[in-house]
Write a structure and sequence with these properties.
The protein is α/β, with parallel strands linked by helices and 301 residues long. The longest helix is centred in the C-terminal third of the chain and has 16 residues. The two termini are 24 Å apart.
Length: 301
C-alpha cells in the first residue's frame, strides 16, 4: 500500500471537472482531425516499445453503418503513443510497482489492433482484452501475426452474459479476449470468468485500461459503470491494493470530456499524470491526456 501512496503523491489530483476541462482545453491543441493513424490503409507498419508490428485494420468497416459502432475497426493516433509510454520500464506505474510481473490487466475497448496487449502482456501475468465481438477476427489475426511464438490469442469468444458459449483451441498464452459490450453486458461476472480460465489467479483485477474510448457522450455512463464493476472484486478484499483505472484519451470536445470527467468523478477519485511522468508525445499541447482513477469506498454497483 505504501507504493500506492507514494505513486499517488506524484500525480495531480483533480477536484473540479470544470476547472480541469478549462485547463486542458486552454492548451494549444494541435489539429489532428478525428485522430486516425491512417483511416484508408488496410495494413499499418508500426514500431512500438521496441517491437515492429504489422497491424491489419478495416477502413471499410469503419465507414459502414454497423449498429453499435465501428470506431474499433482502425488504429487511433494515441494508441501506439500510449502503448510506448505505458510499456516502458521507466514508466511511473512500473517504477512504483503498481504494475509488475504478477499483475492482471483488463483493457476496455481494445479494438482490432491488440497493440496494448502485444506490448504489455509479456511484462505481466495476465492480460485480458475486451470489446464488442465484431473486432475478434482482425484482433486474432493481429495477435497471431505479431506474437513471436505464433501462439496467438486464447479466445474466450463468449459474451459476459453467456460465458460458456465457445472457446477455440490453441496453445496457452497470457493474452486473452473476452467479448464485453458496455451497453448490454455487466462486467460483474468477469472476475469469475478469469478464475474459470484457469490462468487468471484469484480473479483479482489490478489495472483497468481504456485508451481513446471517450468520444460519444451517450456511452459515458456505461463506460464508467463498467469501470466501477471491474473494481468491485478488489473492494471486497480490503487487504488488496485497489484496482487502478488508467484512462488515456485525445482531447477533442470539451463538452464530452467534461461530461465524462463529471460522471467518472462521482464514483472515482481522479488524478492527472503530470508532464514530468509522461513521454514527450503525451505531454501538454500534444492533444492527449492520461488520468488515473481509484474507486471511492462504497461506490461499486
Amino acid at each position: 500500500m505504501m507504493s500506492l501512496v507514494k505513486f499517488l503523491s506524484t500525480l495531480e489530483e483533480v477536484s473540479d471537472p470544470s476547472e480541469e476541462t478549462f485547463l486542458l482545453f486552454s492548451q494549444s491543441l494541435p489539429s489532428q482531425d478525428l485522430g486516425f493513424v491512417d483511416s484508408k490503409a488496410t495494413i499499418l507498419e508500426l514500431e512500438v516499445a521496441g517491437r515492429d508490428l504489422t497491424i491489419s485494420q478495416s477502413p471499410t468497416l469503419l465507414s459502414s453503418n454497423r449498429e453499435g459502432g465501428t470506431t474499433g475497426a482502425v488504429v487511433w493516433k494515441i494508441t501506439p503513443l500510449f502503448a510506448e509510454w505505458i510499456a516502458s520500464s521507466t514508466n511511473c506505474l512500473f517504477y512504483n510497482s503498481i504494475i509488475d510481473s504478477s499483475s492482471t490487466i483488463v483493457e476496455l475497448g481494445c479494438g482490432i489492433s491488440g497493440i496494448l496487449g502485444l506490448v504489455l502482456a509479456p511484462r505481466v501475468a495476465n492480460y485480458v482484452a475486451t470489446d464488442q465481438g465484431y473486432v475478434e477476427k482482425l484482433l486474432n489475426l493481429n495477435i497471431h501475426r505479431n506474437t513471436s511464438q505464433s501462439t496467438g490469442l486464447r479466445e474466450h469468444t463468449s459474451t459476459i452474459k453467456n460465458h460458456h458459449k465457445a472457446s477455440k483451441p490453441g496453445r496457452s498464452t497470457n493474452l486473452n479476449f473476452l467479448t464485453l459490450d458496455w451497453e448490454t453486458d455487466s462486467a460483474l461476472s468477469l472476475p469469475s470468468l478469469l478464475v474459470d480460465s484457469k490462468h487468471m489467479g484469484d480473479g483479482t483485477i489490478d489495472i483497468v485500461l481504456a485508451c481513446d474510448c471517450i468520444y460519444n457522450e451517450s456511452l459515458i455512463a456505461q463506460l464508467v459503470r463498467t469501470c466501477a464493476e471491474l473494481c468491485q472484486v478488489v473492494e471486497a478484499k480490503p487487504s488488496k491494493i485497489p484496482t487502478i483505472c488508467v484512462i488515456a484519451q485525445q482531447l477533442r470536445s470539451p463538452d464530452v470530456f467534461e461530461a465524462w470527467l463529471t460522471t467518472f468523478s462521482e464514483s472515482f477519485r481522479v488524478w492527472r499524470v503530470p508532464d514530468s511522468l509522461l513521454s514527450d508525445e503525451l505531454k501538454q499541447d500534444s492533444g492527449f491526456v492520461v488520468h488515473i482513477g481509484i474507486i471511492k469506498p462504497g461506490e461499486t454497483q
